Amino acid sequence: MTAADPGTRIVRWALVAGAVAGLLAVMAGAFGAHGLRHVVSERGLEVFQTAVSYQMYHALALVAVSLMPALGLSGNLLTLACGFWLAGMMLFSGSLYLLVLTGIHWLGPVTPVGGVCFMVGWVLLIVAALKK
């Protein structure tokens, strides 16, 4: 695999994005557990934890995709899957974080769009694997 190989680019940016997203998920989880416990309702803590969990799941998915070129699986579909997962993290988890922290309820309709982004990413991964 050369530096110009698309698989190398997927490895680098998916690994970095996954690591950053994972770090931020751990930080958000700690903030939620310690900083928000006496500030928001039990339901608010549950919603915040859901955002953290989905962010971490998809951070790990990005890291997993970064390993796929070693298995002979790379290409534009994987890149698109990663992009959809990143968009999902921003829209789904981001809207839930903001909802809990600010109480702005018009963000609610954004959350399902992020969920759809997560699902599209997984479908793209399935298609990429089947094409191989």
Automatic annotation (TrEMBL):
Keywords: Membrane, Transmembrane, Transmembrane helix. The keyword Membrane applies. It is found in: Membrane. InterPro entries: DUF423 (IPR006696). It is a multi-pass membrane protein. It comes from the Bacteria. One of its GO terms (cellular component) is plasma membrane. The keyword Membrane applies. The chain crosses the membrane at residues 56-78, 85-107, 113-130. Pfam families: DUF423. Belongs to the UPF0382 family. This is DUF423 domain-containing protein. It comes from Marinobacter nauticus (strain ATCC 700491 / DSM 11845 / VT8) (Marinobacter aquaeolei). The lineage of its organism: Bacteria, Pseudomonadati, Pseudomonadota, Gammaproteobacteria, Pseudomonadales.
